Structure to design on (396 residues):
C-alpha cells in the first residue's frame, strides 16, 4: 500500500480532466489544462484528450459526475490510455473510486508535480524535500485508499481488517516524515553556515514562475552554466555565483520556480530552498511576458513572496522573452509606428505599476541586457551604501 507513489512512464498516453465551477471560468480552466498538459509532457506523458465539465462543486465520490465518468471510461477503454490526470487535488476516496471505475492509474496535479520533482531531484537536500512532500501528500489519503477493505470486512461490531493496517501504514509514514525532517534540519544547518560564510556581499536572487527564463538570465549575468530548458521545473536547487559588475561584487542566486495550485505542504518543504530568497537583499522578479497568462503568473509569484514575508525587499521586475512577445503580438502588416505605440503603452503601464522598477529584455537575444545590468548595479550599490556607509571598497 505504501507503494502508492505512482510513477509516470515515458510516452504514456494521458487524458486530462478539469471542472468549470463557481471559482473557475471556462477560459481559466483551458489555461490550467494547457499548463497541466505541459506538466504532463515534462513528466514524459503524451496528452491525447481533455474532458471538462460544468459543476457547481466537485462530486465527493468521483470528482466529476457519473455521466462524465462513464464518458471517460468509454474513451480510455478503446484508446490505450494509461493515466488520467485531474487538475485539482483528489481525496484518497476519490482516487480509489475513480481507479475502480476506470481501471486506469489516476493522479492529480500535485501528484504530477511531485513526480516531476522526484525525477529531477539530484542533491540529497532536494531528494529529501521531495520525499517529505510525497509522504505528507500521502498521509491524509491513506484512509480513503483503505476504505474498500474496511467495507469488505466491516460488519456490525467489527472494526474491519483495514483499520489496524491503516494505523500501521500511518505510523510508518509518520516515522518517515519525522526522519526526513531531521535529515533536512541537519542539511539546513550546514547550508546556513555556508551562507553565513559568504560574508558581507549583497545578495541578489532571481525569482519567478517556472519556465520564465531565470536560469537563462543567471547564465547571462554570471559566467556560470546552469541547466535551462523548455520544461517546467528545470531548476530544483539554488545555485549561487559571485558576480562583478564594474568592480562591484555581489552574489546572484537562481531558485526553484513557482507554479499556481502548488500544494501548500510542498511549499512548506521547499521553504529551506526558499531561504535563499528570504535572505536575499534584492529580488529580481523574472516574468515571461510572452505567456498569455503572465499577469496571473505574476500574481502567483507575488502571493508566494508575501507568504515568505519578503515582499518589502527592493524588487526589480524583469519582463523577459520580449522577442517572443513581439512575435506573438505583432501582425506582419502592422506599421512600425503602431508597434512602437503598443510597446510604449506596455512600458508605461508596467513602469507605473512597479514604481519605475521594470526592465524589458530578451535573454536569448541578449536585448537590453546592458540596461538590466545597470539597473541591478544601481540597486546593489545603493544597498552597499546603506549597509556599509564607511566602507568604500565595494563601490569602486
Ligand atoms: N524566446 C525566448 N525564450 C527564452 C528567453 N529566455 C529564456 N527562454 C527559454 O525559456 C525556456 C525556459 O528557460 P529557463 O531559463 O530554463 O527558465 P527557468 O525560469 O529557469 O525555468 P525553471 O527552472 O524550470 O523554473 C528555455 O527554453 C529558454 O531557452 C527569451 O528571452 N526569449
Ligand atoms: Mg531554472
Amino acid at each position: 500500500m505504501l507503494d502508492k507513489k505512482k510513477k509516470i512512464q515515458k510516452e504514456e498516453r494521458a487524458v486530462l480532466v478539469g471542472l468549470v465551477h463557481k471559482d473557475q471560468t471556462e477560459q481559466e480552466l483551458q489555461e490550467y489544462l494547457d499548463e497541466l498538459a505541459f506538466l504532463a509532457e515534462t513528466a514524459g506523458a503524451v496528452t491525447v484528450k481533455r474532458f471538462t465539465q460544468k459543476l457547481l462543486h466537485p462530486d465527493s465520490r468521483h470528482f466529476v459526475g457519473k455521466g462524465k465518468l462513464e464518458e471517460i471510461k468509454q474513451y480510455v477503454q478503446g484508446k490505450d490510455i494509461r493515466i488520467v490526470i485531474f487538475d485539482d487535488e483528489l481525496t484518497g476516496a476519490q482516487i480509489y473510486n475513480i481507479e475502480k471505475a476506470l481501471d486506469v492509474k489516476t493522479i492529480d496535479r500535485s501528484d504530477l508535480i511531485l513526480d516531476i520533482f522526484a525525477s529531477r531531484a539530484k542533491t540529497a537536500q532536494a531528494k529529501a524535500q521531495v520525499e517529505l512532500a510525497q509522504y505528507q501528500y500521502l498521509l491524509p489519503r491513506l484512509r480513503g485508499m483503505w476504505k474498500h477493505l474496511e467495507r469488505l470486512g466491516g460488519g456490525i461490531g467489527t472494526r474491519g481488517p483495514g483499520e489496524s493496517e491503516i494505523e500501521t501504514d500511518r505510523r510508518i509514514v509518520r516515522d518517515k516524515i519525522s526522519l526526513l525532517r531531521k535529515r533536512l534540519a541537519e542539511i539546513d544547518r550546514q547550508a546556513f553556515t555556508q551562507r553565513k560564510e559568504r560574508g558581507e556581499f549583497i545578495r541578489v536572487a532571481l525569482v519567478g514562475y517556472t519556465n520564465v527564463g531565470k536560469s537563462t538570465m543567471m547564465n547571462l549575468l554570471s559566467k556560470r552554466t546552469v541547466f535551462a530548458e523548455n520544461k517546467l521545473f528545470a531548476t530544483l536547487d539554488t545555485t549561487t555565483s559571485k558576480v562583478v559588475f564594474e568592480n562591484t561584487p555581489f552574489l546572484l542566486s537562481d531558485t526553484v520556480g513557482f507554479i499556481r495550485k502548488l500544494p501548500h505542504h510542498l511549499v512548506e518543504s521547499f521553504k529551506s530552498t526558499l531561504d535563499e530568497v528570504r535572505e536575499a537583499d534584492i529580488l529580481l522578479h523574472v516574468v515571461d511576458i510572452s505567456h498569455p497568462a503572465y499577469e496571473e503568473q505574476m500574481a502567483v509569484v507575488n502571493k508566494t513572496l508575501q507568504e515568505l514575508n519578503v515582499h518589502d525587499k527592493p524588487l526589480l521586475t524583469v519582463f523577459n522573452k520580449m522577442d517572443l512577445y513581439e512575435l506573438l503580438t505583432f501582425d506582419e502588416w502592422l506599421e512600425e509606428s503602431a508597434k512602437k505605440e503598443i510597446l510604449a503603452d506596455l512600458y508605461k503601464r508596467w513602469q507605473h505599476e512597479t514604481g519605475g522598477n521594470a526592465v524589458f529584455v530578451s535573454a536569448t537575444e541578449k536585448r537590453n541586457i546592458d540596461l538590466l545590468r545597470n539597473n541591478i548595479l544601481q540597486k546593489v550599490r545603493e544597498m552597499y551604501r546603506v549597509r556599509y556607509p564607511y566602507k568604500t571598497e565595494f563601490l569602486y
Remarks:
- The pocket of guanosine-5'-triphosphate (ligand 1) is lined by residues 208, 210-216, 228-230, 232-235, 257, 320-321, 323-324, 362-364 (CB under 6 Å).
- Residues 219 and 225 are 5 Å apart (CA to CA).
- Confidence is low (pLDDT under 50) at residues 148-161.
- The first helix runs from residue 26 to 43.
